[in-house]
Amino acid sequence: MAGCVVLVTADRRSAELSSALTRRGATVRHAPALSIVPHEHDDQLLLDTKRLLESPPDIVVITTGIGFRGWVEAADAAGVADELIDVLSGARIVARGPKAHGAIQAAGLQADWVAESETSAEILDLLLTEGVAGVRIAVQHHGAGADGVDTELSAAGADVVSLVVYRWGPSPQPAALRESVHAAAAGQIDAVVFTSAPGAAAWLAEAELQDQWTGIAARMASGALVAAAVGPVTAKPLQDRGITPLIPDRGRLGALVRALVGHFEQAQSTAVLTSAGPLQVRSTVALLDGHVLPVSPNGLEVLRLLADAGGDVVTRAQVLAVLPGDSADPHTAEVAVARLRDVCGRALIQTVVKRGYRLAT
Fold first, then answer.
1. Is there a single domain that holds both residue 46 and residue 150?
2. Which of 75-79, 100-104, 161-165, 281-285 has the highest mean pLDDT?
3. What CATH number has the domain bearing residue 304?
4. Lowest-confidence range among 109-123, 142-156, 318-332?
5. Which GO terms describe its biological process (predicted)?
6. Helices 330-344 and 297-309: crossing angle, nearest 10°?
7. 252 with 195, same domain?
8. pLDDT tens-digit profile of 93-112?
9. Same domain flag for 150 and 65
10. CA–CA dist 67, 2 (Å, integer)
11. What is the DSSP string of 103-134?
């Protein structure tokens, strides 16, 4: 991933994700789209937990591993962890995916059923098919709520107790968030990584607020900007806007990093083939035959223009259009190309008499 600029929009576990990407050669920018309100600061959770202890549930739905662990930790801080575990052990436990299942097992409990698709829809399908009228069901939410689980179960006659273990708050770095959407639209970022649906929705909303969505959507549609989501739930806000994100085969950060690495390795095979080797032009660097070229920002834009043409001729006027200023002097274009040749090698860029320039392919 040498030369790739990757934007990490996560708050939680951002350091872990950033470190993994950096080890693979990427340059990482961090702009958390949302913050997480810690569970130990949420009095409502403790009130809801005590209400559940007083009237135990028949079924408990666990939607996230971190949420379940946080729930037990909050109960422990309040001195009721043992009571909570006892109550849960007497209920039927339904887990939304392997991470929730693992957290349940770590607490010494056993899940009775696991939604392998990691979606709330699969859980709803199971419970509604069985019938829930008169059944008391506790639902542990993640930060954005329970994806309509509460409403659907209540409508079917269940007595639902909702427990929000952590809540989403505004971005802790609003300036960085604002700058990130401008950078993504301007071509300064190669990939944006999302680890939660609320975070993805918040980043997209910021892009709209800053009037940058049109540019971002165009770059994503062309493949110049990659949107990567840790799983199908996280991907949905992007898909709702017509974006097809990169999704790993497993909903893990490690799998997400490997998917990104694989994507950019595959991109090498579709690079522009030149007489000097494969050429890739990324947001801030260019790679020729796998080596980073020390080109200036102006040179990078000229090289991007030539690469996009794929060996076809670009005119001096087109070169001038990507350079700063409003010069109409053909000599300015000639100087820019000459400087680029000094870095890339004179054979890479050919002059086509009376027409312009093209890459030697």
1. yes
2. 100-104
3. 1.10.10.10
4. 142-156
5. phosphorelay signal transduction system; regulation of DNA-templated transcription; uroporphyrinogen III biosynthetic process
6. 90
7. yes
8. 999 989 899 999 999 999 99
9. yes
10. 35
11. HHHHTT---SEE-TT--HHHHHHHHHHH--TT
